[in-house]
# Entry
Amino acid sequence: MLKRGSTIGILGGGQLGRMMATSAAQLGYRVIGYAPDGDNVMGDVAEDFVTAAWDDEAALAAFAARCDVVTWEFENVPVATARGIAGPAIFPDPKALETAQDRLDEKRFIEELGGRPAAYAKVDSSYDLIAAADRLGAPGILKTRRDGYDGKGQWRIANGREAEALNVPETPCIYEAFVEFEAEFSVILVRSQDGETRFWDSTRNEHRGGILAASHFPAGEPIAAQIAEARELARKVADALNYVGVLTLEFFATHEGPIFNEMAPRVHNSGHWTIEGAATSQFENHIRAVAGLPLGDTRTTAAQVEMRNILGNDIENAHAALGDARLHLHDYGKAEASEGRKMGHATLITHDAGL
Ligand code: AMP
# Structure
């Protein structure tokens, strides 16, 4: 159990780290962040923030020497950086990063555990893409195996002609058949150092242009009937990775049951509602898990929850919405409000009485 006043190191500097650091402070810990130069908004709420390249071994060693335990908030932290942390323990185990960073490895891993991803094929050339679209059918989506997020590194392919015309990027890709889903949802769990696992309720997740727009609780049908099977897979993933902390798996709810989309070895945008809508938030429980503290209750405390992301310039008018007393605003404090960028979120909490 990490003593009060101990230091938690967080790799990455975005809003997820900012919300984690806030929970760490609440529990009496200090936080130091580490990330390359950028809009590292975690720095506003952390005791210190180290700005250095992921491969700067001297900076990383100096950072690790100041930490009692290390975690991350960003799934594209290079595996070598996470493995290079010597001295303090790092949670989750970096093999979770390794598995989730490559869409092909991730899907194979899921299949080995009995999960069902969308039909997929490895694509390294335009010949592979044409063959994949022919074999698996179109429409489909070409995705880079690495470094994609929020719909980036993805190309929709409507038919065989588009597969022939597309300039396949010079980076390993996979082709996925388009899933005719009824709804999307995620399973978010927290697993402690002694293997205790707790789940939050699942929300219905609404995406626009590949970016999460909103999460809704209750998720309703058909999601409710598919949660048990999805949780079973998520538990197997967590156990196989001896996972410590918060883990997210995203699913498509289909007529054939839950189809695995992707996993994130970290707290997740679709869990932001847990700050006000659950007894313990995903951020607090992640910190509890990495600090070796008992986990908090994950049950939902509201009758209805709606979380909406605030993108780009919409953040400028966000305070106006607080006229609705049920609303909670989180402004990430980012300087650059470029189009489509996640600048904050708002959670609307409705209790039984309507307030
Ligand atoms: P991803 O970054 O892979 O999670 O993709 C972002 C969003 O694009 C998903 O949440 C879906 O809304 C959509 N999408 C991705 N892959 C597929 C697929 N194989 N079939 C249907 N929709 C997809």
Residues 7-90 form a domain with the Rossmann fold fold (CATH 3.40.50.20). The chain is about 25% helix and 30% strand. The pocket of adenosine monophosphate is lined by residues 118, 141, 148, 151, 176, 178-179, 184, 207, 210, 250, 261-262 (CB under 6 Å). Residues 319 and 329 are 7 Å apart (CA to CA).
